[in-house]
Amino acid sequence: MKLLTCCLAVVVGLIAGPATVSAAAAATESPPGIEAKSWSLIDARTGDNLAGKAVNRRLPMASTTKMMTAYLALRMLPMNEAVRAAEYRAIPGESLMGLEAGQKVSVRDLLYGLIMLSGNDAAVTLAQAVSGTVPRFTGLMNRTARWLGLRNTSYENPVGLDGPDQYSSAGDLVRLGRVLMAMPRFRPIAAARTATLRSYNPPIEIETGNEFVRDNPWAIGIKTGHTLKAGYVLASDGRRRATELIASVMGAASETARDAETVELLDYGFSLYDKRVPIRTKRPVARVPVRFEDRDLPVTSPRSIRIGVREGESLELSTDLPEEVEGPIRKGERIGSATVRLDGEVVGRAPLLSGRKVAEPGIFDRAVEAVTSNRVYILIGLSAILVLLLLYRRHKEREMRTRLARAGRRRR
């Protein structure tokens, strides 16, 4: 059966119903007045810059350094690989996972300790597991930074201790955060409030030291940082209104100010979006004509698609469905598919399923359909028969008149 691709221009307000407050009306006129030295806010899906201050300024980054450490460990090491903890001599005040030199621990557990506890010992252990030595790993960090386009970032160590060549920028932190949060193995680590370290005997429970994640249910990452030189730093990720945003705050005056300014910044970002639901479960997405039936077949999606839309963005729903269907069709049988695009970019796809059962047509249905579909030819045929009958009748009448005339002549 020939498929018809049907593109439906979606009027945003009609899809979701009348919104109580539009994004334009809800949005603050300008970004909040954040006192941190530098900050940046981007859309996690597109990478679009939403707001920022001194986004390219090079500043000490503290333990947000561990974002690159985690990135390389995830790329280079299997999660279930067991490695031996490095010998690490910490100075007072350093954040540690509490590893003992030589202890066997999985890469997975090290990553949880690295991000949730900001363990410097975990960072060094992962660095040695990847490159053999910390200096070689640091070289790899810098090469990777250039490869990722982090032009205002430099590393001296995988931990985040201050140094003249240990710096980043708010813009680079959100870019690296976006790369990391696109990695399925990293997302649950960044978002975890608690975790079980399974390679310990017995397993132990840990709790995140990231108060931004712990205190905001919509927060899903990423990494804190603090040194005397850097002040308070936070790379963050949050999801609300069907929108995911990534922010960074560098050089905040205190941990409380850093977290509060991050929430204020993300609140501003989320206010720029309206939540739209172009596809909802149990609500027909389209209707398809059914052969031999007077009523159409509703098609539905097994999952909803939600998307945050900014003012001026165009949302479009298209369906790929048959022009017509014929039974038998089971309820829930796949009929076609739907695609949602935002400004031409695909943001979601969903299968479209039959919303009801369609019975197989009977002999009578097919007979009626055959008659109705061929009625023109039938009428032509009947007309031809009538014409032939009429011609035959006239022929017989002429023949009869001829016989009568001959009989009359003979009598004379």
Structure description:
The chain is α+β, with helices and mostly antiparallel strands. The protein has three domains: 3-15 and 276-354, Peptidoglycan synthesis regulatory factor (PBP3), Domain 2 (Sandwich), CATH 2.60.410.10; 28-271, DD-peptidase/beta-lactamase superfamily (Beta-lactamase), CATH 3.40.710; 374-411. It has twelve helices and 17 strands. The protein has helices spanning 12-16, 23-26, 66-76, 107-116, 120-131, 134-147, 170-181, 187-191, 211-215, 255-270, 363-373, 375-411, and strands at residues 3-9, 38-43, 49-53, 82-84, 104-106, 194-197, 204-207, 219-227, 231-240, 243-252, 273-279, 286-288, 297-300, 305-310, 315-322, 334-342, 345-354. The strands form five sheets. The protein has a six-stranded antiparallel β-sheet, with no helix packed on it. A hairpin with an 8-residue loop joins strand 12 (286-288) and strand 13. Helix 3 (66-76) packs antiparallel against helix 4. The radius of gyration is 36 Å and the shape is elongated. Mean pLDDT is 89; it is low at 1-28.
Question: In this structure, how is the largest beta sheet organized?
Answer: 6 strands, antiparallel
Order of helices and strands: EHHEEHEEHHHHHEEHEEEHEEEEEEEHH
- Helix percent reads 25-40%
CATH homologous superfamily placement of the largest domain: DD-peptidase/beta-lactamase superfamily
Strand percentage lies at 25-35%
- Provide the gyration radius in Å: 36 Å
Number of helices: 12
Q: Low-confidence parts lasting 5 or more residues at pLDDT below 50?
A: 1-28
What's the β-strand tally?
17
CATH class group of the largest domain:
Alpha Beta
Strand arrangement across the biggest beta sheet: 1-15-16-17-13-12
Give the overall shape.
Answer: elongated
What is the residue-mean pLDDT, rounded to a whole number? 89
Number of domains: 3
CATH architecture of the largest domain: 3-Layer(aba) Sandwich
Helix and strand content put the structural class at: alpha+beta
N- to C-terminal separation? 77 Å
The CATH topology of the largest domain is given as: Beta-lactamase
